[in-house]
Amino acid sequence: MKHLKVLFIGIALIGAVHASAQTNYKIGVNVGLNYPDLRGHEYAKYQNYKVGQLFGVTLDYILQEQLSVKASVNYEQKLKKFRIIYFDYDAEESGKEDFKKIYSYINVPILLKYKFGSSPFFANAGPFLNYLLSSKTKPEYHQDTNGTITAQKDLDFGFSIGFGASIALNDKHDLTLEIRDDFGVIDTGDVPKHVGGSAKTNTLKLILGYNLGL
Questions:
Q1: Is residue 199 part of a domain?
Q2: What CATH number has the domain bearing residue 120?
Q3: DSSP string spanning 163-181?
Q4: Would you state the pLDDT for residue 57?
C-alpha cells in the first residue's frame, strides 16, 4: 500500500542503524489504540470519534542509564462516525444512514524518555508531527461543502506526554506498555465557517511496544 511507504523507509533507516549500532541503541515495533477528540470551537465536543489503531517502528538512543531519546514512525488511523437523517417533502422522516470517516496519518513523535531509578516505570515528553495521508468516508458520501467549511490541513503539530512501564524479557529484549496523550496546538481546519473558531486535536493512546537492544 502506498501510504505505508514511509513506514518502510523508517524500517530501512533502522536497519542501517542496526548495521553500525553500538549497545546504546534499541530498535522496536509498537502497536496500539487511539481515541481522538477535538477542541477549539463550540461544536467540537459533539464530534462522534471512535477508537482507532496505530502501528509502527521505533528507535531509542540511550543518553544515560535513565535517559534516552525515542523516535517513532507510525501509521495511524482515526475514526469518526456520523448519521444522516432523510426527510420527505412533507418534512417527515423517511430514513437514516450511518457513515464512518477514516483519517489516515503518518505520526512522528520525538520524545525524551526518563526511567525512574531501578523501577520499571518511565515518563516521556516531546513534540509530534502528523501528516494526513487521506480521509475517506464509508459508504461513499458526497457533500458539497464548497465555501462553507474551512480547508482541512495536511499537517498537525503538538506535544506528547506519556507514562508507562517496561517488562524485561531478558538482557536485550523488553516489552513496554504506555499511556500517551498527543496534544495538538495548531488549527487543522475542517470547521463550518458559520461556527468560527478552530479545530485542534487531542488524542489519547494506549501503546504496546517490543524492543531489542543492540
A1: no
A2: 2.40.160
A3: EEEEEESSSSEEEEEEEEE
A4: 96
Nearest to 75 by CA among 152, 10, 137: 10
Residue 90 in any domain: the answer is yes
Rounded to an integer, what is the distance from CA 143 to the centroid of its chain?
26
- Please tell me the distance from the alpha carbon of residue 55 to that of residue 65, in angstroms, as a whole number: 27
Kindly state whether residue 11 falls inside one of the protein's structural domains. Answer: no
d(CA 157, CA 203) in angstroms, rounded, equals: 12
Does residue 41 lie in a domain region?
A: yes
Domain membership of residue 92 as a residue range? 32-194+205-213
Query: Is-contact 161 178, C-beta < 8 A?
Result: no
CA–CA gap between residue 167 and residue 177 (Å, rounded): 8
Q: Which is it for the CA torsion 150, 138, 81, 34, positive or negative?
A: negative
Omega of the bond prior to 109 within 30 degrees of 0, cis?
Answer: no
Surface-to-core class of residue 91, CB atoms within 10 Å of its CB (0-12 exposed, 13-18 middle, 19+ buried):
exposed
Q: How many domains does the chain have?
A: 1
Q: In the structure grid, which three cell numbers stand for residue 34, read together?
A: 487511539
How far from chain centre, in Å, is Cα 110? 13
SS3 91: coil
**Residue found under cell 531509542:** 60
pLDDT digits (tens, 9 = 90+) for 63-108: 988 999 999 999 999 998 876 767 777 666 676 777 888 999 999 9
Query: What is the pTM assigned to this prediction?
Result: 0.82
